[in-house]
Design goal:
This protein is mostly helical and about 250 residues long. The protein has one domain: Up-down Bundle (Heme Oxygenase, Chain A). It is about 65% helix and about 0% strand. The radius of gyration is 18 Å and the shape is globular. The model has no long low-confidence stretch (mean pLDDT about 95).
Length: about 250
């Protein structure tokens, strides 16, 4: 990540800061990526969808660890309670509930072995590096930057709508039950990001802090984008699957 974005000449108002954040998302969010367009438009094979689901599992599985690092740094019970809900959303109350369990249902619906997915043996190296970089960012950077790193959720409802609608329309081996992960996220993500955006707009109270927030969102967009870059390079064109990574069946 670059050290700091260009510092605004004057302090942006909260609404101006939000507008700058939304402009970054419009330019850099991964709904613009060719791999997402292929998924949405029904142009991926079952094996390519398996590779996506397998690699995305690592991101889903590491989100609670990222949030645990952040919770440990929050100074008040009220803030910790707010963020604790995110861990429960992903981890659930037991192994059969929560976002991770629903993602495993997606991978199983696509024909992947559950234990193989959980082992993460078939990950692309770039997936592991990108996700680990995100977790380490939240652990190591300022609390304000850590909170801001989730602001890509500003844009997630749109990509979820496109993904679910396109996959149900174009792939006869995918059902609404397979995609059950996404339904709760349509309400969870806006709730989560409303709190984070409010926190950022209140606490980014200098031009320097605002520059950090904008750069944080660029970094997080890069984390999501590079995962699709890796999938495209390995499984679409020219098909350079790294040693040890998942190889789709015939």
């Amino acid at each position: 990540m670059s050290p700091i974005a260009t510092v605004p000449a004057t302090l942006l108002t909260p609404d101006q800061l939000e507008a700058e954040l939304r402009a970054i998302g419009a330019e850099r969010y991964h709904d613009q990526h060719p791999f997402h367009h292929m998924m949405r438009d029904g142009k991926l094979t079952r094996g390519q969808l398996q590779a996506w689901a397998l690699n995305r599992y690592y991101y889903q599985a590491r989100i609670p660890a990222k949030d645990a690092y952040l919770i440990a740094r929050l100074p008040t019970p009220a803030l910790r309670r707010e963020w604790r809900r995110r861990i429960l959303d992903h981890d659930g109350d037991d192994e059969n509930t929560g976002g991770i369990a629903r993602w495993l249902k997606l991978t199983e619906g696509l024909g992947l072995d559950r234990d193989y997915v959980i082992s993460t043996r078939g990950l692309l190296p770039a997936t592991r590096f990108a996700v680990d970089a995100y977790v380490n960012f939240v652990r190591d950077r300022s609390l304000l930057e850590a909170v801001a790193s989730c602001l890509t959720e500003l844009f997630s409802p749109q990509i979820i709508h496109e993904r679910v609608e396109g996959m149900l329309r174009n792939y006869d081996f995918i059902s609404p039950d397979t995609l059950a992960y996404f339904t709760p996220r349509l309400t969870q993500a806006p709730t989560d990001v409303a709190f984070a955006l409010s926190y950022v707009k209140e606490h980014a109270d200098t031009p320097e802090k605002q520059a950090q927030i904008l750069d944080t969102l660029r970094f997080k967009c890069d984390v999501l984008w590079v995962q699709l870059d890796a999938l495209y390079l390995a499984y679409v064109a020219p098909g350079m699957i790294p040693p040890g990574a998942f190889v789709p069946g015939p």
